[in-house]
Prior knowledge:
This protein is 6% helix and 52% strand. The protein is mainly beta. It has one domain (17-708): Beta Barrel (Maltoporin, Chain A), CATH 2.40.170.20. The chain has a 22-stranded antiparallel β-barrel.
Amino acid sequence: MRRGARYSGMQGTKTTLTWALLPLTGWLIQAWAAIGFAAAAPEPFRAAAEPLEKVVVTVGRRATDARAIARSLTALPQEDAGWALGQTHAQEVLARAPGVNLQRGNGQEYLPALRSPVLTGPGACGALLTAEDGIPITSPGFCNINELLFAHHEAASRIEILRGPGAAVHGGNALHGVVNVITAQAVASPEAGLELGSHGFSRFRLNFPGESGFGFRLTGTRAGGFREDSGYRQLKFNGFKAGGSGARIWTAGVAVSGLDQDTAGYVTGLNGYRDREAARSNPDPEAFRQAINVRAYSRLEHRLGESLALVVTPYARYSRMRFRMHFLPGDPYESNHHRGVGVQSAAYLDRPAGPLVAGLDMEYTKGALRQWQEGETAGSAFARAVFPSGEHYRYRADALWVAPFAQFHLRLGERWTVSAGARYERVRYDYRNRLPAGRTRDDRTACGFGGCRYSRPADRADTFAAFSPKLSLMWRPAPGRRAWLSFAHGFRMPQATELYRLQGAQTTAELRPENVRAAEMGLALRSGAMASQLVVYHMRKRDVLFRDAELFNRAGGGTRHEGLEADIGWPLGGALTLELAASLARHRYDRDFLLAGGNLRGLDVDTAPRRFGGVRLRWQDGDERTVELECLWTGGYFLEPRNLHRYPGHELFNLRARMALGKRLTAYMRVLNLTGRAYAARADYTVFSGERYFPGAPRSLYLGLRRRW
């Protein structure tokens, strides 16, 4: 691996110190638990023949029966989310839920989509809320598009996906939905596993229940990567302790995640992913990503009577990331970090007519970002002039978030339930620039060809506020049958990078919160072991934040999103089960977008396949043996806004098997891309490079053992 240039010019300790933090985590758990604030841990999921009706905590922050929720959601149990699936990337498990379409980059990188086009660009990560045990993985104003790489999905007890705008308890980043990874649940007995696989893959996992409510989950991974200089090393640790008696129940937890990755860049040229030699090459061997994320929380649930409970959850977070921006001219470096504290609080009133919850969320975060370039930009005189060496951005931004909310459920007889809620959110940014303001070099000299590409605003403060109502109606005509109609408003605040990381002649970004109005109609049926869920949705986004032809960050765009989602589990008799998670969707520009002399209105948003999903045929002989054949498909999609270039799509087959070798030992096997198809995990188009791709991995074999004691 070529590492020589990757550390030059960088400040602070290396991410390899992440590995040294592991011995400290046990102390952190005990210290945080001593604070004495925690809430009841969700009840452990018990596997049953009900793949679509599960206890979830995403919608109300405490255990809730999914059958009482008039929203489309998926709760993947431990069988799908953890050991049995054995995923090497979050994409492999989230593909089992309709509406979710993660496009993998290199290593643990990805771009997300949840009832949306694939999200790209500065601040796009703000459209999806990702959390672990109910705590957002990153601060709402300093998110990262790859932040699910910090979540311990490999050892999850359950993964919950809420599709569409979040509930009243969620913050503004739940514009398109919520992904919540649940880890703070004890396992029945200690278990450890070792896996080996293609391309230098090895992984060790340990889940330990401990005593007196204490437990932890540990995963360490090393992979060589199928492309040159594209390996990674990753460590994830989650510890938790629960206790309490009488009216008080508490849980405390800590999460540590670190990544040290050598990143492979795009392969360029039409259908370049089909060239086997090019697909294994790495045009950017100096690219890398180093990251660390530490979170600690403590939750207390205190019952004040038979019908009233108070839940308070203070938390602290630290996140740091460094990487080389191989996708930009000049290959600049970026270093960013943020740290902060927050509290989630809610009061629950369990009334005969239906429950009521009201609360207040607050968070204070201090963030910083630095971008710099070493050496001249390769290419033309124009590129060398407008993408100069030296520092491009260096700023600090503090943010204070305050959000009261309330929601209630009202039973209208035995069959009807109406739910309503609302959230008001306000944020204030205080920004301090550490370089000369404007579009000059860092030494105040001017760039040629009209000015430098990068522009730095002067010190300023910005305040944004949004109000978000929700309303739904559910009908339950008989056991196992329910239908619902819901209307929801969602929003996301402008991210710090959209406000203060400007380009061209822009000196101030006058932005507004991006918002969406959504309607969905759903039907869920259950008969014995057969379960199905069908959902139709329509969403319109307004004040969409985008970068125009002048490179200005602006608000005022509009898009339209419509789709059909199916989630079906069908027993075929005997030991066979067929599962389907599929989506048909259309994502279009809904307002005038002028780009390169053309109007985009009515065209498809780029990187938005109209169909994607998967079907799985599973044979299961009790707890002894399981074999699953999976087919995943991604339809064709346009690579750029003008809809002139297109990726044709692909289908992939995966095979997974599990066999018990006695009462305590289990063997696992999986073959990904069973047919060895050449495909693009991600494809797009730029005027500088033309078509470019992240090639998908070739056929890969993984073998593992798990032992319980």
